[in-house]
Amino acid sequence: MVSLIEFLKERNIPVDKVEEDKIDCQVILLLSDDELTKYIPIYGDRIAVKDFCKNQGGTGSKSKKKKTLLQKIRKRLHPSSKRNLFKTKKDIDESSSDSDDNPSTSKNIGNDHAAKSERRIELGWLMKEGDRMKQVRGPTGGGTRHLIVDKDTLVSAIKRNSFKTLLSRRNITQG
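User: That's the sequence. What structure does it adopt?
Assistant: Structure tokens below.
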């Protein structure tokens, strides 16, 4: 990358006063045209130097500001969540080196169901009528129930508890 002083020397602009007053690209972008005339007398050179400074210092600081702003937004959107919908491949590579000492942070990224210890099931009642199975609806004592059970609960335990739940109702006309 070419520095400001090198650029000024290439265009045959005197650099003594610029170095003396410690003028750099950020300062040049802040100076008015009248103030810049003291350091760079030719109009075309002033325009070229301003353009050089915009391309040199402007994009680097803007992209850095943009990255930090995006990081702040990501933190606000998912402050305590392990998964991050906005993670890029570069972010994951950088965070993998940080999380080597704590492996639980990289485990199950994006899979909230694997982190849960319970599951929600819907329980219904079927009665056999002849050669068909028919669902028992709510008005006749049936209907569906929503249960939350541990993931390690066996089907046999769910059946036992569901018979108690469904058959304990007084308005059952079937079964």
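Residues 82-86, 98-104 have pLDDT under 50 and may be disordered.
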